[in-house]
Amino acid sequence: MTGNAFDEMGEGDRLRPAYRAIAEWLRKTPPTDLAAKRAEAEVLFRRVGITFAVYGEGGDPDRLIPFDIIPRILGRSEWDGLSAGLSQRVRALNAFLADVYGRQEILKAGKIPEHLVVGNEQFRPEMRDFTPPGGIYTHIAGIDVVRTAPNQFYVLEDNARTPSGVSYMLENREAMLRLFPRLLAQHRIAPVNHYPEELLATLKAAAPERAGPDPTVAILTPGSFNSAYYEHCFLADEMGVEVLEGADLTIEDDVVYMRTTAGPKRVDVLYRRIDDDYLDPKAFRPDSMLGVPGLMAAYKAGNIALCNAPGCGIADDKAIYPYVPDMIRFYLGEEPKLENVPTYLCEQETHRSYVLEHLHELVVKLAQGSGGYGMMIGPHATQAERAEFAARIRARPQDYIAQPTLALSTVPTLVEAGIAPRHVDLRPFVLSTKDEVRIVPGGLTRVALREGSLVVNSSQGGGTKDTWVLDRDPMTGGVPC
User: Fold this and answer.
1) 320 Cβ neighbours under 8 A, 6+ residues apart
2) Is residue 314 part of a domain?
3) 15-53 pLDDT, tens per residue?
4) Cα–Cα distance between 92 and 113 in angstroms, integer?
5) Which end of the chain is more exposed for a tag (fewer CB within 10 A), N or C?
6) What is the CATH number of the domain that holds 377?
7) Bond prior to 303 in cis (omega within 30° of 0)
8) How far is CA 190 from CA 15, 73, 148, 153, 467, in A?
């Protein structure tokens, strides 16, 4: 797949301006020096303890996420266009959530089939006719974007529930500052280290009005066995707030308190990293040991804000994804600035027939899957694997979608054989309040480290890179080294 992909750096005399200084640095730096820096980066990440968990595997599930020392670079004009599209998209997703849990005008207008929403297991009837503080549902969104040409970005996936990965974005930048201070000084790079400050401001803005100007914020985690537990603790430390498990909270008269050495303390905002099903055993799964009994009652009484709001999963379900451009037109009266990847809904007979006939050239995904699980990349699959997925689709067509196999862009990556192009995606993080949408420049670049692979998920062997957004576009003559 790599040979047909857009190379973001370019080649020879066709080097793209944003990469010229990096290309010169790579040309001058001996391979042994790069290898030594890569080893130093691994030691640094191990010392900090940046790991992720892989479920379903025996032994210690924690792994060190691979980090590539060659940054991915975006020019300022590229980023400005991308961020405008991201802001537009998240505004529409929030409007959609407010509508489907309210008057359901988009369903009445026939823009989205009603059964895809109200019959979806991610739709939470408990949220009907309830407006969260500030009217925002997804305060923190992670939008996965891929690139196929110089000016062509596609949204691959919306993450509106509990998007993870921002800690890697921050730690990657910190690692690059330690490893290559002179290289960073040669570029004017937009900072990312203010993200925790922006996140805290977003969470405080979601607090109930009675909380006053300085509400108490905490992170609600499922615990140390969660794959993103490192991130929960990291963000709590960076924001100066507590990270809590369900057992650390009590509820009296629909008011939420956390246990402290000085006695119970009222909590106004919970940045919850627990899935809806486990959030409150009285409202959702009664066997949950992770959540807080009575939390939904306290939420609906207006005594606490939950970020993101329960029920956001209906906005990032892959069966709803094809309709996001229609949401933008319906709610905002605008044309989408970012395109969707063409998507086939296997529950529709005509779509299903096409998918079954073209499995060898399509990517098939679970409508509610994540992390690269439950996915088949047709061109790379065996005949047996394609046959297995065909049987799955016939048995439960509503569970699957399919998309064309995109030639994801490549960027230079340090691998065992030297420097080689590898496919990447990008997850920017979008913060929303009732007054504005804010996006820290860049995001988490994930890289498929295996040659020819299109799967960038860390759980499937992918790694990460630091993402540089230049504060200004370089001149066509290049950036001085």
Assistant:
1) 112, 116, 117, 120, 314
2) no
3) 999 999 999 999 999 999 999 999 999 999 888 877 655
4) 17
5) C
6) 3.30.1490.270
7) no
8) 22, 11, 24, 20, 10
